[in-house]
Amino acid sequence: MSTWFISDLHLAPEETRITAGFLGFMLEPQAGDTLYILGDFFNYWIGDDVKTPYIEQIQQVLKATKDRGVNLYFMHGNRDFLIGKDFCDASGMTLLNDPTIIHLGSEPVVLMHGDSLCTRDEAYMEFRKMARNPQWQQQFLAQPIEDRIAYAQKARSESQSSNSMKEDSIMDVTPSAVDIELSKHQSTRMIHGHTHRPAVHNWQHEGQNRERIVLGDWYTKGWYLKVDNEQYDLVEFDLPKA
Question: What is the DSSP letter of 37?
Fold first, then answer.
């Protein structure tokens, strides 16, 4: 049995290549396998009450995957933190906390989306604190759908403008934050997405060997991590042509 990890697909109706790549990828995990989706699955999410043919298509694919014996888990990202229990239940997914600790083989592994590790981006950390507040979420979800769509589009535009002026180091994880999380959970390995910098990082902390595996985004290529018999393979693949 294999364990698979993906993140940062940013699914949207207009992203036809990403959608086609996702539909093809979902045929890979087999009965008994486990798939973890570590956030930013959708480009944005404004509430489980929003129903569209596209969302229903993705939901049906997830449910069909679950029905053929694949275990599905989902963790919020910075774009889809409003995905709730209703959508996860209908899709056959179990909603995870960030961080979550799992065991792959004999060792604990820390799973995160990754945005909470970018502590040098102070403006984003302030937004994250606000947006993850249950009271703020309740007030937002009580607004008409049209108002929520307008807010999401404006927030995305402002984020793109702001990020274009930030240094790369500010938008990457803070190394000390990674070490703090690993030490807190008595683990030597972490898997996360968010930064769009797919890589495997190895280093030593206080004499201990540590590893951080960063999942890739799906803007130009598809990415997944496959773990089989404690063998970790970070794989890049071509998306279908539009």
Answer: E
Where would I find the beta strands (DSSP E) of 13-147? 34-37, 71-75, 93-96, 100-104, 107-111
* Share of the chain residues as helix, strand and coil, in percent rounded to the nearest 5: 35, 25, 40
| Chain segment 187-214, per-residue pLDDT in tens | 999 999 999 999 999 999 999 999 999 9
pLDDT at residue 165 in the model = 59
**Edge-to-edge strand list for the sheet holding 93-96:** 93-96, 71-75, 34-37, 3-6, 221-228, 231-238
Alpha-carbon distance 188 to 110, whole Å?
8
Q: Are 186 and 108 in contact (CB under 8 A)?
A: yes
18 backbone dihedrals φ, ψ, rounded to 5°: -65, -45
Domain ranges of the chain: 3-238
Distance CA 174, CA 144 (A): 37
Global pTM? 0.95
How many alpha carbons fall within 13 Å on the CB side of residue 163?
11
Q: Is 22 helix (H, G, I), strand (E, B) or coil?
A: helix
Q: What is the dihedral of CA 212, 217, 218, 220, to 10 degrees?
A: -110
> What does the pLDDT look like over 8-38, one tens digit per residue?
999 999 999 999 999 999 999 999 999 999 9
- CA atoms within 13 A of residue 185's CA, in its CB half-sphere: 22
Half-sphere exposure of 100 toward its Cβ, with a 13 Å CA cutoff? 18
Specify whether domain 3-238 bears CATH 3.40.50.2020: no
CA distances from 151 to 37, 73, 91, 157 (A): 25, 28, 26, 10
